[in-house]
Amino acid sequence: MAPDKDVFSGGVAVVTGAGSGIGAGLARRAGALGMTVVVTDINEASAAETVAAIEAAGGRAEAEKVDVSVPGELDRLAELVFDRHGEVRLLINNAGIETVGNSWEVPAARWEATLNINLHGVIHGVRAFVPRIIASGKEAWIGNLSSVGAFGQMPGQTAYTVTKHAVQAFSECLYLEMELKALPIHVSAIVPGMMRTNIFNAEAGEGEPDNAAKHRRAMFEMMRDHGMDLDEGCRLFLEQMAQNRFWVHSQPEMSKQIIGGRVKFLQEQIAPIMPDIARQIAVD
Ligand SMILES: NC(=O)c1ccc[n+]([C@@H]2O[C@H](COP(=O)([O-])OP(=O)(O)OC[C@H]3O[C@@H](n4cnc5c(N)ncnc54)[C@H](O)[C@@H]3O)[C@@H](O)[C@H]2O)c1
């Protein structure tokens, strides 16, 4: 039996940003494996769509509107889930946005949204849920959405890159905190390469500077044409999490290449390395 069919065949899964993309894919996969899935998203209608898809496939799911950029909403969610179910076996801190624009041109509100959703959303997901998971005494798995962007530098996506480097560092420290305390909570950094989702859709760029549109469009087309199939990627993610792996990849070769560049950068203390595509899609 594949380990995910064993480890995630029951219990409760909570996924943030599960109305679309990777969050929706992970929620559907957890539902298909037999978990009761709490599908959360800032967009209530899209969360309901994911729930409908899980139920149509014979699974169990419930939708909750949650904005991860507000710490109190994650406290409310944790309280609600533990009141209702008394446990959480799988927590996926997934909700995230891309932000395109030169660092000095991204408006303050978009900077704040990026940091609050991508970084604080993960931190406060852990802060709200972990004490309750510990009190339940049950084994649990936490996956935080990092990125291959956590290991490189991408001009024009600085706000996003900053948050992913930070989520990676947060996940590494969290893993060690669990080890020091000998807690039965397995922490994974989920590192997608390039998966076909809505993160670069034009409407998701509202609040970015006008000159970001060309870069956003080029990324959208690249993901549409070369992105990995979502269901396949999400199947791989849960399979690796079920093996208690810290590193969880969709495209291990892509991760290896980018991490290799980072290792060279750090070891040789050279100047930041320009990614191949960066000049072609540079923000004006
Ligand atoms: N798609 C990729 O190739 C890729 C690569 C690396 C990392 N990631 C990461 O995967 C995660 C999911 O991205 P995706 O590509 O599936 O994007 P997506 O845009 O398809 O889905 C993101 C979901 O998050 C929700 N969301 C946005 N703001 C929110 C908020 N404040 N509170 C709650 N939900 C909110 C959106 O409504 C949407 O349903 C992100 O953290 C992203 O950085 C994606």
From TrEMBL:
Family: Belongs to the short-chain dehydrogenases/reductases (SDR) family.
Matching CDD domains: SDR_c
Molecular functions per Gene Ontology: oxidoreductase activity
Keyword Oxidoreductase recorded: yes
Entry protein name: NAD(P)-dependent dehydrogenase (Short-subunit alcohol dehydrogenase family)
InterPro entries documented for this protein: NAD(P)-bd_dom_sf, SDR_fam
Source organism: Novosphingobium taihuense
Assigned GO CC terms: membrane
Keywords (A to Z) from UniProt: Oxidoreductase
